[in-house]
Amino acid sequence: MKITAVKIYSYRLPLVRPLLLTRETLQERQGFLLSLSSDTGHTAWGEAAPLPGFSRETLAETGTALRGLRDKLAGAAVPESIEQLNGQFNDWLSSFTLCPSAQFAVETAALGLLAHSRDLTLAGLFCHQPPDTVWVNGLITNDTPVVETARRFSREGYRAVKIKVGRRPIDEDVVRTRDAFHELGHGVGLRLDANRAWSFDEAVRFAEMVLDCDPEYVEEPLSDPSRLAELVKLTGTRVALDESLVDMNPEELSGHTYVSAIILKPTLLGGVERAAMFARKAREMKIRVIVSSSFESSVGIAALVQFAAAYGANDTPVGLDTLSWFKQDLLKEPIDCSGGRIMVAQSARAANSVIEDLLTEVSGV
To answer: Which CATH number is 199's domain given?
Structure first.
């Protein structure tokens, strides 16, 4: 199968409310969509949307990377074995200069072409019998009212809820965590994400004060992640790796036996192939795999749902419930996230309904 056409589009999507990130606040989400067409008559999409403050590359650098590969991809043959995600993408794209978010776009678009040519969903391309449903966790951000939101998630059937902590005084984060726990009860998993906000002593204090809430894990609690094993040993807190994975080789995970879960964000990690390598290593070590978004549009989320269906653990909620932040949708058929779950087949079908009128084609080199 050969690629016959390569198109690049930019998008700007207004958010329903400001998104408070570590270093800045977003009023809109910007990114690029990559469209690949093949000699089989199919077209597939990928998304490159670096997240400010988390991605190493800027939006401008991502656009430059995508424009630089346009002529190189046109006429190129897509290797038939790339769906194995064992290094074939690295071999194929090694001569290109791709930043992580651009790599994610190329990989998912090329895999989409391969899936279409075989009349499969992306999840079906990755594994023989993907689940019908991917469960998602609800998200309570720093500016979200805890009690009302947790109550709604519980009522709607969510199986897990994640709370952002670390931006407020510890005592306030403790109160918010305990309020959520009381609303959710023992039947809904409680996850916490500190984004490396705390010193060791602060993390110990927080862990001791929420111990009876029995959180599934705390993502990256320490500003000095080298002391995570010490924190786990001292407090019994379960921890998850997120930002730490960016600088880590998948095989290096073997040196982190204290970890309870890893959070896989292919936009930040540099594509689904590298994320799959982490997932396989984590499974080998009995570490939970949580696929998560970086606030991509519905095009990126659609691909992540397919990846989560194949590489996440069945019935383990993933972090893909972020589409409610957007005022507009890039898909004619929205992805249905109601009830704390996404149907795999529906998201695959929706991925093919891109509204090109909302996009601006990028020309030039």
So the answer is: 3.20.20.120
Catalytic residue list contains 164: yes
> Which position has the token pair 């984004």?
195
First CA to last CA distance, the chain? 25
Token pair 């090109």 in the structure block, residue:
356
Confidence (pLDDT) at 80: 83
| Beta-bridge partner residues of 198 | 222
| Distance, C-alpha 207 to centroid of its chain | 26
91 and 157 assigned to the same domain: no
**Residue 186 sits in the same domain as residue 261:** yes
The total domain count for the chain is: 2
Question: Catalytic residue at 7?
Answer: no
- The single residue of 2, 7, 72, 164 carrying the catalytic annotation is 164
Same domain, 145 and 220: yes
Among residues 162, 265, 286, 332, the one annotated as catalytic is 265
188/116 same-domain check: no
Tell me, what CATH number does 108's domain have? 3.30.390.10
Beta carbons within 8 Å of 146's beta carbon, 6+ residues apart: 140, 163, 176, 179, 180, 183
What pLDDT sits at residue 22? 77
Same domain, 25 and 156: no
Burial zone of 348 (CB within 10 Å; 0-12 exposed, 13-18 middle, 19+ buried)? buried
Q: Which amino acid is at 347?
A: S
pLDDT tens digits for range 181-230: 999 988 899 999 999 999 999 999 999 999 999 999 999 999 999 999 99
Flag residues of the chain having pLDDT under 70.
Answer: 364-365
Q: DSSP alpha helices (H): ranges in the chain?
A: 59-73, 88-93, 100-117, 122-126, 146-156, 170-184, 200-209, 228-235, 266-269, 272-284, 298-311, 344-350
Determine the structural domain holding residue 311 and report its residue range.
Answer: 133-350
Domain match, 73 and 29 both: yes
